[in-house]
Amino acid sequence: MSTLNYIESPLDPVDAVYRHVIPAGDGWMHLIKQGQTLRILDLEGNQAADTLFFNADDLSERYSAQDTIREQGAIYLTSGTRLMSNLCRPMLTITADTCGRHDTLGGACAAESNMVRYALEKRFMHACRDTFLLQIALSGLPLTKRDLSHNINFFMNVPVTPEGGLQFADGVSEAGKYVEMRADMNVHCLISNCPQLNNPCNAYNPTPVEVLIWDADLHS
Amino acid sequence: MSTPLYEESIPGGAMWSMLIPRHRLVRLTALEAGANLSALLYNARNPLDRINVPDTLKALHTAKLTRGHILMSDMGCALASIVDDTLGWHDPLGGHSTAAHVREAFGEHTYQDYRNDWYRNAHDNFLVELSKHGLGLRDIVANINFFSKVTADLEGRMTLDASHCPAGAQITLRTEMEVLLVLSNTPHPLAAAGSYPRVPVKIEIERSEAAPEDDYCRNFRPECARTLALTERLYI
Fold it and tell me: Where are the alpha helices (DSSP H) in B107-236?
């Protein structure tokens, strides 16, 4: 296990302008304005929050996992990581992280990938991509499956070995761990609180996460 | 390989695309050392179904691509199987170059000054080539880079191995459905500054057949057999 990078936030939940608990297996889509800070809080531990971002002023610009890891020269996300778009521009910056490492290689679960990974009979289980599709359909925004791409898995641990292996390790998160990011542009944040029951990404036990938003002027 | 149905050399800097029928072998050969071919694959019947790098990697438990691996779509189908590979490592992590990368690493070479030796980049090449098929920016997803190797150390730091690809390196795909293959023969975005690499890559296509029961890729992992089974459902 490599070094983990713990940075606590000075922000107080009492000052948050928005708080919402996303139940296990549910979704959430919300506008984060430039300068605002979003916190995702792992309420019960070892939960995976599958997350995508869209530029609210130009929806064709969206989070890009490959641009993010390449531009920082490292595959894990933590404090200091700039979340980059498909136009290779910073969308948000991670400003605090008490988990220490987050994955952006593993993607989101889908009914179809569950069939490939586990068994053809897994088709009818709930999966993150269905949550993404429902949330964008309900949002009223002109987003479709075409706009869903390679996401972030906050709180998930997917180590890559120097030999090029990909592992799904036990989570490094626990109850009360959080990650915080400041928006560098107006973004729509899309979260699927992962319902996966076939692997240890949630410790086989999907649980709620909380999202909190602070306004820009609280940053000193 | 018997006489190819099609053969062409893609010059350094250039882009390429083709609708390729099911069960064709597509052999790519680096004609000099140091090639990088950025690639995207789409289900030709439904380009909304396209290569899904994370689904491919997690199904195969790998962060590199080589023989035995199957490039999977986001609907769980097999786009193409890697049936042969002399390199052992092709990059699914590094993404593709932009105009800014190329300008920063190699300087500016405009068409006006350099004609067809100008410096092109993968992002613009993808936009142009995809537009010919009615696709665009929203269809550019995480890509793969044939002939390149990017490792991650225990801290996660990424390194491009500049000496990875010798002249003559080859990788052969077998299409498992009708595929739109889009290629950009442009430098890897982590390529070191210096002279703009211009390595021609030969592409040959020949007829093949469905993966037999004892096929190496089909049997590489149980996930491979399942993605091939799902692909059959496109053809019932």
Answer: 111-114, 122-131, 222-232
User: How many separate domains does chain B show?
Assistant: 1
Return the structure tokens found at A13. 């939940």
Dist CA A24 CA A55 (whole Å): 26
* B42-76 as b/e: b if 16+ CB within 10 A: bbbeebbbbbbbbbbbbbbebbbbbbbbbbbbbbb
pLDDT tens for B148-200 read 999 999 999 999 999 999 999 999 999 999 999 999 999 999 999 999 999 99
B1 part of a folded domain: no
- Contact yes or no for B94/A66 (Cβ under 8 A): yes
Query: Chain A partners of B76 at a C-beta cutoff of 8 Å?
Result: 110, 112-113, 115-116
Q: Please, are residues A40 and A204 in contact by the beta-carbon 8 Å criterion?
A: no
Q: How far is A21 from chain B (nearest CA, A)?
A: 28
pTM attached to this predicted model: 0.97
pLDDT band per the 50, 70, 90 thresholds, residue A169 = confident
* ipTM score above 0.90: yes
Of chain B residues 35-94, which have a CB less than 8 A from chain A? 48, 52-55, 57-64, 72, 74-77, 89, 93-94
A168–B contact, CB cutoff 8 A:
yes
Q: Which two tokens stand for residue A158?
A: 């997917």
